Amino acid sequence: MFSFPLAVQIRQYVRFKNRSQELISSGRRDLIDDNGFKNALYMIDIGQNDLLQALYNSNLTYTTVVEKIPPMLLEIKKAIQTVYLYGGRKFWVHNTGPLGCAPKELAINPHNESDLDPIGCFRVHNNVVKTFNKGLFSLVSEMRAQLKDATLVYVDIYSIKYKLSADSKRYGFVDPLMACCGFGGRPNNYDRKATCGQPGSTICRNLTKAVVWDGVHYTEAANRFVVDAILSNRYTYPKILLNRFW
């Protein structure tokens, strides 16, 4: 699996829009027109892979990673500006969740108790994420002031997911720091030699009570919790309901 840099994705978007307009002008009627691009909701959820790679490259050193955050935020700013230039006016921006609570990270990175927060998540991972999210919040606020005719909503995914990990039993979940599908059992049920789907891996008995599916990605039940929290409007800034864009 390969991930595409944000700049590449934006170039693909520009190409897609320009080509759509060319085909419409030549008679096609089954493509998105200029008004469609303007009324579309542009959802941005990015940063997790960049922060993890920076953490790996720095041997989990907070200061080194934080120095790399401003260029990451600049790329997001350029992306929003480009989409705006090409007509986009509605932006829904997710911050990054608590990477330090991922079973994979806890399993592959040696640590002791002092490296963990009160609920057992990596401090350095989550501190890096919180610094990134603080910068992202400022960026979205800055651009909201600059792009007067655009709507930019910041969504606090971090708080939603951390709340789920911290109070999992309250919401009907168990073992939030364990992968449901994996190998090795407690504490994290994650092994690079037998990841989910590979020989030796197993699946937990009650998937509806698991938070993390494969050590990284959330289960359907956990994602439902996240979506319900987003739709509650308690974690959006400003307080704009998602269905306002429909």
TrEMBL record:
Pfam families: Lipase_GDSL. This is Uncharacterized protein. InterPro entries: GDSL (IPR001087), SGNH_hydro_sf (IPR036514). Coiled coil: none annotated. Belongs to the 'GDSL' lipolytic enzyme family. Keywords: Glycoprotein. It comes from the Eukaryota.
